[in-house]
Design goal:
Blueprint lengths: L4 E4 L3 H13 L3 E7 L6 H5 L2 E6 L10 H11 L3 E3 L9 H9 L3 E2 L4 H8 L1 H10 L15 H11 L3 E5 L8 E4 L2 H19 L4 E5 L5 E9 L5 E13 L2 E7 L6 H17 L4 E9 L5 E7 L6 H8 L3 H9 L16 E8 L1 E2 L5 E2 L2 E2 L2 E3 L6 E5 L6 E2 L6 E9 L2 H14 L1 E3 L5 H8 L2 H4 L7 H11 L1
Parallel strand pairs: 1-2, 1-4, 2-3, 4-5
Antiparallel strand pairs: 6-7, 6-8, 9-10, 9-12, 10-11, 11-14, 12-13, 14-21, 15-16, 17-20, 18-22, 19-21
Helix pairs in contact: 4-5, 7-8, 12-13
Length: 452
């Protein structure tokens, strides 16, 4: 479907990123902002900008009716949801369809099916994609949970069926913990997702979190664009990502990409998406979930493939065919992304909103900054603490690490606390240097820091 004006239903660096992609393909763009974001960069640089409500997200960035009204008032005929907020809302995608607005993303049906983690797992299993052992669907009773946990063996995870972002997940090491953790997971799931359904799966101890980026058009073409290793996590939140994964072999990449393409086709997927896998120490991999949107860490894939993923989202939404086949995708060099957050690592990563008094960002060949902050900008306390993504690209992993160290050393932000020095320490850690880390590494590393 052809469109000429895109409303960006998001804020911050991803809104700025989408503005740039729209302009490069000749599209006008409209941004929306809350009253707390009047001075935000995305509100200043778009062709048009509309205030849609107060700071509280449910009354602004999550207000579907206000977003649709903004489209109607500005003549925008497409919406790009970015990530977070309504990006994986089947209801919002359906509302766009009902109003004749192109949703730059997959269909409501795909979002709905893949957003239900239990249903998605069943679909992947039927398609021959390896899945983590666990319940066949949602847990209906404590006795049911006890029986399944005994069959697959402890430790297990109780996970929200409609979950994401590390919410609604509880580890259970023995049967006597199960009832309490089941109740806590259900309560958190209801609070964050409005759905208290949970399912059970085997906890793969010390895995790598490796995700495969795919693109799929409306003509049945689906390609995989290599992997991203997202194992450096704190409380299920990603801290830095890299591509290729230090764990990867050519054979493993081929098998994981084939599984990712199967997963996308099994769900009738169209647009950009990411299939997340857990990979154990024997390099067995298991489907975890599929994210039906652009990822925060998409720039590392753009660096190693040379493909603009946001532009491809737009072109696919306009019913264009993919201009390449799987054999055309080449992984070149190594890329690392560090998430720069307004937070204080010394105070348990406490958020640090406030005014940026001085700002200097690094540059040079192979250095990219995705950000929406500027000197004099006041970071509001209402939203995610990420203020920038620093991404580098070099011929080898070792060179990429060195480039990132230098870039972090040049990055100056005054007036607020940031995690820049913390990221620099991680880049100098011997385990990271050698690629010897997994999902459990960062939390263990933080415990060691507390004791030292």
């Amino acid at each position: 479907m052809s469109f000429s004006k895109v409303l960006i239903a998001n804020r911050g660096e991803i809104a700025v990123r989408i503005i740039r992609a729209c302009r490069e393909v000749g599209l006008h763009c409209v941004t929306v902002y809350s009253t707390a974001d009047r001075s935000a960069l995305h509100a200043k640089i778009a062709d048009e900008s509309v205030c849609i409500g107060p700071a509280v997200t449910k009354d602004s960035y999550l207000n579907m009716r206000a977003l649709i009204a903004a489209c109607e008032n500005t003549g925008a005929d497409a919406i790009h949801p970015g990530f977070g907020f309504l990006s994986e809302s089947a209801e919002f995608a359906e509302l766009c369809r009902e109003h004749g607005i192109t949703f730059i993303g997959p269909s409501p049906e795909s979002i709905s099916m893949l957003g239900d983690k239990a249903r998605a797992k069943e679909t992947m299993k039927a398609a021959g994609v390896p899945v983590i052992p666990g319940s066949e669907g949602v847990i209906t009773s404590l006795e049911d949970a006890k029986k399944i946990a005994a069959e697959i063996g402890y430790p297990v995870l109780v996970k929200a069926s409609a979950g994401g972002g590390g919410r609604g997940i509880r580890r259970v090491d023995s049967e006597d913990q199960l009832e309490n953790q089941l109740a806590l997971a259900k309560d958190e799931a209801l609070k964050f997702f409005g759905n208290d359904e949970v399912y059970l799966e085997k906890l793969i101890v010390g895995p790598h979190h490796v995700e495969i980026q795919i693109l799929a058009d409306s003509f049945g073409n689906t390609v995989a664009l290599g992997e991203r290793d997202c194992s450096m996590q704190r409380r299920n939140q990603k801290v830095l990502e890299e591509s290729p994964s230090p764990l990867m072999t050519d054979d493993l990449r081929r098998r994981m990409q084939e599984a990712a393409v199967k997963a996308a086709k099994a769900s009738g997927y169209c647009n950009a998406g990411t299939i997340e896998f857990l990979v154990d120490h024997e390099r067995n991999f298991y489907f975890m979930e599929m994210n039906t949107r652009i990822q925060v860490e998409h720039p590392v894939t753009e660096f190693v493939t040379g493909i603009d993923l946001v532009q491809m989202q737009i072109k696919i939404a306009q019913d264009e065919k993919l201009p390449f086949a799987q054999d055309d995708i080449k992984i070149t060099g190594h890329s690392i992304e560090c998430r720069i957050n307004a937070e204080n690592p010394e105070l348990d990563f406490r958020p640090s909103p406030g005014t940026i008094e001085a700002l200097y960002t690094p540059g040079g060949p192979g250095v990219r900054i995705d950000s929406a902050v500027y000197q004099g900008y006041t970071i509001p306390p209402y939203y995610d603490s990420m203020i920038a993504k620093l991404i580098v690209h070099a011929p080898t992993r070792r060179e990429a690490i060195m480039k990132m160290r230098l870039a972090l050393s040049e990055f100056i932000v005054e007036g607020i606390d940031t995690n820049i020095d913390f990221q620099l320490r991680l880049l100098k850690n011997k385990n990271f240097e050698e690629g010897d880390y997994d999902n459990a590494f960062l939390m263990s590393y933080l415990e060691q820091l507390k004791k030292s």
